[in-house]
From TrEMBL, chains A, B:
<dbReference type="InterPro" id="IPR006204">
    <property type="entry name" value="GHMP_kinase_N_dom"/>
</dbReference>
<keyword id="KW-0808">Transferase</keyword>
<dbReference type="InterPro" id="IPR020568">
    <property type="entry name" value="Ribosomal_Su5_D2-typ_SF"/>
</dbReference>
<comment type="function">
    <text>Phosphorylates (R)-pantoate to form (R)-4-phosphopantoate in the CoA biosynthesis pathway.</text>
</comment>
<feature type="domain" description="GHMP kinase N-terminal">
    <location>
        <begin position="72"/>
        <end position="142"/>
    </location>
</feature>
<dbReference type="GO" id="GO:0016301">
    <property type="term" value="F:kinase activity"/>
</dbReference>
<comment type="similarity">
    <text>Belongs to the GHMP kinase family. PoK subfamily.</text>
</comment>
<dbReference type="InterPro" id="IPR012043">
    <property type="entry name" value="PoK"/>
</dbReference>
<dbReference type="InterPro" id="IPR014721">
    <property type="entry name" value="Ribsml_uS5_D2-typ_fold_subgr"/>
</dbReference>
<protein>
    <recommendedName>
        <fullName>Pantoate kinase</fullName>
        <ecNumber>2.7.1.169</ecNumber>
    </recommendedName>
</protein>
<dbReference type="Pfam" id="PF00288">
    <property type="entry name" value="GHMP_kinases_N"/>
</dbReference>
<keyword id="KW-0173">Coenzyme A biosynthesis</keyword>
<dbReference type="GO" id="GO:0005524">
    <property type="term" value="F:ATP binding"/>
</dbReference>
<keyword id="KW-0067">ATP-binding</keyword>
<keyword id="KW-0547">Nucleotide-binding</keyword>
<dbReference type="GO" id="GO:0015937">
    <property type="term" value="P:coenzyme A biosynthetic process"/>
</dbReference>
<comment type="pathway">
    <text>Cofactor biosynthesis; coenzyme A biosynthesis.</text>
</comment>
Length: 275, 275
């Protein structure tokens, strides 16, 4: 047993998605597309007699992290340092689950494969209702397109072969669990439409365009987000809403050009990795 | 049309493999496992009226590169700068094909997806007989396990969730085409055995062990390679032979510890990427 191990998991903003429930959480998930981000979460795991989870210095309960540790049959102290806010559409809970799986596998020498670890983290996230597609996207890196839902044994991924500077600005939280438990018919229809657009033309431009249409048609835009996206469009920029958070993300310098003071990062060329 | 674009593709040493021919080169390929390397190839593509390919300052013919450009229906000047020798088992031809596909897609705004570009490069490489699994491994990054052969539409990948320092030393070339056109029965049997060992325990240790057994049982070891691997074993290090080249690679400081003066790099956490 090692003393500790640390994994970095990129953040992930989903531009559009459709939900695909299933009885088995490792087969459930979402179709859609998003950007993985150089801003992300460092997760350090060390053996402990009792499990505790700390995010940016504060002890919290993160159900998918607890589930991952139980699945690996270990107790540990998990310390996460996040450059991104929790609950605002950046996949922080997915990052914590996946980072815990990677680091715990190393510390406790569990000898699982990457796909097995991703499956465990994805299933834990879906079961908790905190996300449907972040984990598999974060394991892939780049600008992943989720063509088929589920963990690595079942899903099908492609990607947009591009990199970009990314700006983002968060106004607050939206509950993924709440949105997903409501009426998702309009959302699913809009998600399918957006996916077929991006499959037809896998470029960043078409991704941003499809994401904006999706946010509107799925009825998820808040007043604040709508205004901000309009401000970016007014200066010829491309912005959309992170699913699911009251968060706007833009390519290049879209938000700065519109007079905002956003956080700045870039698409992350790699998936989650041990430090 | 852009002026030029550059892609970086990691090197790839295969530890073991089995060959899986098929009429369609995008479905043919290999099962096996290997290490992608931080040492790799930068490929720059710029539009030109006639196609030329330059590797480290010297004009050469690289069939898979020509095929990729033809498939994308373009003519271009392709300049590759490689940290690795050609023909010595580092996947340099695969890297040139994949880098050309990524960079040409960008320069000529072909709007293809990542999977489509990988399929084109993989098919071109298989058709030329210069490699069977490097391209899909190089697109993935890390320490990929090729569970099923072929391009992204057909194959199935997993990975060993580890990183390592890697040392390597090349004594010369081996012709992939020549080995693959010979009797491959022993090789295929040894490749299957090695893969099931690594699937059972996806760790770097078991990968190196399986690779050594494979090199021996497939009858591919040269005198020089055998001696060098033995020297590394004698100092408790782990080394094996790169498939296919007269090249030895080792984890950590295996070759240095044995008194050699190897090149030093590490596993590459990401797949091929635009610069």
């Amino acid at each position: 047993m090692r003393e500790e191990a640390t994994a970095f998991v990129p953040g992930h903003v989903t531009g559009f998605f459709s939900a695909h429930p299933a009885d088995d959480p490792t087969k459930a998930g979402s179709r859609g597309a998003g950007l993985t981000l150089t801003d992300g979460v460092d997760v350090t795991v060390e053996p402990a007699t009792e499990t505790t989870v700390v995010l940016d210095g504060t002890e919290i309960d993160v159900e998918p992290v607890a589930t991952v540790l139980e699945t690996l049959d270990v107790t540990a102290r998990v310390e996460a340092d996040s450059e991104l806010p929790l609950g605002a559409g950046f996949g922080v809970s997915g990052a914590m689950a996946l980072g815990t799986a990677l680091a715990a596998n190393r510390v406790f020498e569990r000898k699982l494969s990457l796909n097995e670890l991703v499956t465990i983290a994805h299933g834990a996230e879906v079961q908790a209702g905190t996300g449907l597609g972040d984990v598999v996207a974060q394991a892939h890196g780049g600008v992943p397109i989720r063509l088929e839902p589920g963990g690595p044994q079942d899903n099908k991924l492609d990607a947009i072969p591009s990199r970009a500077r990314v700006e983002y600005l968060s106004f607050g939280e939206l509950s993924t669990a709440e949105v997903l438990s409501g009426d998702t018919e309009a959302l699913t229809a809009a998600g399918k439409e957006a996916l077929s657009r991006v499959v037809e033309e896998p470029t960043l431009s078409s991704f941003m365009y499809a994401s904006r249409l999706f946010a509107r048609d799925a009825g998820l835009l808040t007043e604040q987000v709508m205004e901000t996206i309009a401000d970016v469009s007014a200066v010829e920029g491309q912005a959309s809403m992170a699913m699911l958070g009251e968060t706007v993300f833009a390519l290049g310098s879209g938000l700065s050009d519109a007079g905002y003071e956003p956080s700045v990062c870039a698409t992350h060329p790699a998936g989650a990795m041990l430090r």
